[in-house]
Amino acid sequence: MDFLRAVLVQDIARALLLAAAAFVLTLITEGFWVRFARAHNIGKRIRVDGPQSHMEKMGTPTMGGIMIVVPVVFLTALFNLVDRWSMLLPLGVMISFAIIGALDDWRSLTTSKNVTHGFTARFKFLLIAGVATVASLVLYLPNPFGLNHGGLVRIPFVGTYDINLWFIPLAVLIIIATSNAVNLTDGLDSLAGWSLTLAFAAFGIMTLLSEPRLTNLMVFSLTMVGACAAFLWYNAHPAQVFMGDTGSLALGAVLAIVALQSQQWLLLPVVGVVFVMEALSVIIQTSYFEWTRRRYGYGRRVFKMAPLHHHFELSGWSQTQVSQRFTIIAAVAAMVGIALALTFAGELVPPMQASPDIPGAQREQSVPAEVPVSAEFNGE
Known about the structure:
mainly alpha
């Protein structure tokens, strides 16, 4: 009973309290940012070729993602970092991607006729790929150089499998793809916010139910849920603020890190199905347009406009209908992802061996040699 109280009460209580604290802190700081951005003309630029209903958003404060990142970093550093050093990886990735996104946002806001809007696509990709590569190496490499995850991945209904060095390029691809997919989704009021809230909630539940329990990663995920929920307060239609690349790149990248660190990254396309839909629509649209342009001399389109949410807007759906219907899809996908993750429950080690408070040496002795141990339980 003492163990159950420690793990199922204290850790969950800590997670829920941090989620509530993140909500309150983000709610306060986001309100400050809205006022500050309006006073200093930090406003969103809108695509002139997009849906006409979006033109009214011109000048809406952007870069609001910074007020999601700051409270999460602050709370995690205070309550979920000491003796839990594996949390440095999601924090480092989130901060790095937030800086890249903020610089890109700022360049696009301060541009003139003689300056390119934001970073060039190639330069931005190189920055993102560089951070993703470092993060992937930290995940893969053994102690003391990394978190000693190796190439482990959990496959539903099959078990845990080691893909060895293939993990590194796959992890880089997952981080880049997820950050960009969330960035593409952030084009409609509350769509990215709701999708991220549900995705982090799903991974919070997965990490709680996993064996061994990744309680620190669970706490971090629920802290993200609280912060994203507070952002929705101001991002609900009609939006008072947008997260911009500052938020979308950072939150997409850290979602990928949570999936990779929990070894549940195969379920990321399930939980993040809305992000997958949005990214695939852009890939299909661009590829088909280029292929038909070379073949017929002019480009043809599959969708009325990409990303996918614009296609449905131009098909007659209102912004609220698109956002709510996509959110419903995201909620169902999160439930499916959790259900698939439950196929691992009890597969690895008994719950008594899952306490994150046991010293590293004792933890290693309590787990059978043939059982892979997540870095969070490897003397962090």
